[in-house]
Automatic annotation (TrEMBL):
Keywords: Membrane, Transmembrane, Transmembrane helix. Residues 9-134 form the Fatty acid desaturase domain. This is Fatty acid desaturase domain-containing protein. The chain crosses the membrane at residues 31-54.
Amino acid sequence: MLASPEDPALAARALKKLLEPAKLKAAKYDLAAWFLFRLVLCVVDWQFFFFYFIPVTYLIDTLRQGENYFQHWGATDPNDPKRDSVSCYSTLYNLLTFNLGYHQEHHYKPGLHWLKLPELTKELPSDRHTVPYSHYLNSPLMFPERASQLRKENVEDVSPVSYTHL
């Protein structure tokens, strides 16, 4: 769970939840399994580990981070749980990614099974930002009018800084 710097109470709640003994124990086991798998892989075939596994893992993680960015860029209202991310309703994309395109639906009801996400679409407002084909197409280059609108909103939201108190 990530918390925004503007909301220290949310960050404190998330940290408190992570420090619960059962969650901390599970996190330690998860980290140990993650490390042990890599260690065994390195011992079994160090060339495979360094020249294939590490670069491919880095590439996949980079693509995942990029997709995460595109799933949120241009969201209609970051403070509204029905408009705080972007969905893609391409049949092929959702078939290949286990309904990853139903991202707004996931934000609206995070614990819902991925097969039930399409049923939530009708509960969401129609004026939210959606993209065709794939989240990777959701970028300022593909939606220049949305990028321009977001720039204007960001400029209006920035309050002037006063240094008179110095």
